[in-house]
Design goal:
32% of the residues lie in helices and 24% in strands. The protein contains twelve helices and 13 strands. Strands 1, 2, 3, 4 and 5 form a five-stranded mixed beta sheet that branches. The radius of gyration is 20 Å and the shape is globular.
């Protein structure tokens, strides 16, 4: 089965890829893989069938590379493609597992800051008493607040960092502001993560395909910094996660230990400027695409 790629279409000219993914499109063509376009706006608006109308029927298996998709909408995309005789190489269940913190945290627990979470609807921040109960297992530590996918680190003081989570008023103030800024984009619920101090030098983003680290890049926020993380423990956790295409963001803690800052589904992870998109797309183009892998019934081999 030929591996193909599904990229976001340009909202202003739907017959071409979104300009943000020009390098991905060029890399797809360079490796000789098939390419189809997704109307990302239509998908988010609830019209999955319209979103995939440019995908040829019965055209096979696809990796998605594009803008972030909420987990529920990704499930709708999977169903719409199935109706056209096509499949996603990352199932909706595996997408959620890698994309949202509650899906990956237990596998990476020894490698990542201590975290607690609570399913929450947008616009409904928990009351101070509920927040204190949630954060109690962390003790008297500094922490950050985020949703299941994203933080607001660029509003660090007002909507991200909490100097002491055992202070109910301080925690509640940051959470309230976080919810106000996230509005309807809140993903899944609230997460409170212990803050750990990292050395300067940026994060490394590691790209994994079928348990193999195929590319190590800078983080998009720090494209000029290129740390070289130690990967053995992370490799074991990635294999245990059992998701075919994932990213791990790693940073060096002040005590010299590499820590996993974030895990993500590789389909919606950003490449930093200057990264080798061709190498990544070549690895994906050469990945297995048997029906048993697509359905989620076969575990990728550990390496």
């Amino acid at each position: 089965m030929i591996t193909r790629f599904l990229l976001c279409a340009d909202p202003l000219r739907s017959v071409r890829p979104d300009p943000a993914f020009t390098e991905d499109a060029a890399a797809v063509r360079a490796v000789g893989a098939g390419l189809a376009l997704l109307d990302h706006d239509a998908l988010l608006a609830g019209n999955a069938e319209e979103a995939v109308r440019r995908v040829p029927r019965d055209s096979g298996a696809y990796w998605y590379r594009g803008w972030m998709i909420p987990a529920l909408k990704y499930g709708e995309l999977e169903a719409a493609l199935r109706n056209r005789g096509c499949v996603l190489l990352t199932s909706a269940a595996r997408y959620r597992r890698a994309h949202e913190l509650p899906g990956w945290y237990r596998v990476f627990e020894a490698l990542t800051p201590s975290s607690v979470w609570l399913p929450t609807a947008p616009g409904e921040p928990p009351a101070p008493a509920r927040l204190a109960e949630l954060a109690a297992p962390l003790g008297s530590v500094a922490a950050i607040v985020k949703d299941y996918v994203k933080s607001r680190k660029h509003e660090w003081e007002e909507a991200c960092y909490v100097p002491d989570v055992s202070d109910p008023a301080g925690l509640s103030a940051v959470v309230q502001r976080f919810f106000a800024l996230q509005e309807d984009s809140l993903a899944g619920g609230l997460v409170v993560r212990e803050f750990e101090p990292f050395v300067r030098g940026g994060e490394a983003r590691v790209w994994w395909v079928d348990g193999e680290a195929v590319l190590v890049t800078a983080h998009p926020d720090t494209p000029h910094d290129r740390p070289a993380p130690v990967l053995e423990a992370v490799r074991t956790a990635v294999a245990a996660l059992d998701c075919r295409f994932v990213t791990t963001d790693l940073a060096l803690r002040e005590d010299g230990v590499w820590r996993v800052v974030e895990v993500g589904d590789g389909q919606v992870s950003g490449l930093p400027r200057g990264a080798d998109a061709g190498r990544l797309l070549e690895a994906l183009g050469g990945a297995r695409s048997a029906a048993s892998d697509i359905s989620g019934g076969t575990r990728p081999p550990s390496r």
